[in-house]
Design brief:
seven-stranded mixed sheet; Rossmann fold
Length: 250
């Protein structure tokens, strides 16, 4: 049984809006949204709603747009609304620690990058710039920064920033729902992995190419989730001259 969670969201960009939109298909309740103040258009002729504010207005969700999240004011909103989880993605501002500690089950952050390697600004653009062949959605706890879930995808040398942004925004919504549903089942934050480079990179996605999967035999030990349990995979082999998706060789 999955318990419905009461959510506060914090985000501003189109990526955040698309991620949050996926939550509308669930039984979890979006109580209110924090987002950045409206800004003038490029020519300064009119004030534009940012994508998250538009998402909230379209779905009749309460919106707060402080220039700065002041703990005393924001805490009042959070406590009175009886929030279970604060979900943050692409907020473009600082979330005070006092605010993070209020939700009953904590706060989580959705990142459009493979952590810890993809830290910093513009992670999607940096992935393309580095000519990486993988990208990732990583969901972490905000208080500890520990990884709750990683969803790795393969990309090609021809993938551009816009294509990767749009695809990751879909994957991020799906990954967020998976995390929230597991939290809703056990009423606690998930088992997490510290953000050590080798551990986070070894979290397997079964849609990846076998040549990526095989890289983690034997150190670091490959990890995955099966029936909501952490599983360590001790031996992986790729046969010479053949490149399969992992599900084809299991």
């Amino acid at each position: 049984m999955i318990f419905s969670l009461r959510l506060a969201l914090a985000g501003t960009t189109n990526f955040a809006a698309k991620t949050f939109n996926a939550l509308l298909s669930t039984d979890h309740v979006i109580v209110f949204v924090y987002t950045q103040p409206d800004r003038p258009s490029v020519r300064g002729i009119r004030i534009l709603k940012n994508p998250v504010k538009k998402f909230a207005y379209d779905n009749k969700i309460i919106v707060y747009q402080p220039y700065k999240l002041i703990p005393t004011e924001s805490s009042y909103n959070m406590i009175n609304a009886n929030i279970d989880i604060l979900v943050v993605t692409a907020y473009c501002g600082i979330i005070p620690k006092e605010l993070i500690n209020i939700p009953k089950l904590g706060a989580i952050n959705v990142h459009a990058s493979l952590l810890p390697r993809g830290r910093g600004a513009a992670p999607i653009q940096r992935t393309i710039e580095a000519i990486d062949n993988i990208s990732c959605i990583t969901i972490t706890g905000i208080d500890t920064g520990n990884i709750l879930l990683s969803r790795v995808i393969s990309i090609s040398e021809y993938t551009n920033g816009g294509e990767l942004h749009d695809f990751l925004s879909i994957i991020s919504g799906e990954a967020l729902i998976d995390v929230l549903n597991i939290i809703g089942k056990c009423s606690a934050l998930l088992l997490s992995t510290p953000q050590k480079f080798k551990n986070s990179d070894a979290v397997l996605d079964f849609n990846n190419d076998a040549k990526y999967i095989a890289a983690f035999n034997h150190l670091p030990v490959a990890l995955s989730i099966l029936d909501n349990k952490l599983v360590r995979i001790w031996y992986i082999k790729k046969y010479p001259g053949h490149y399969y998706n992992l599900h084809n060789i299991l």
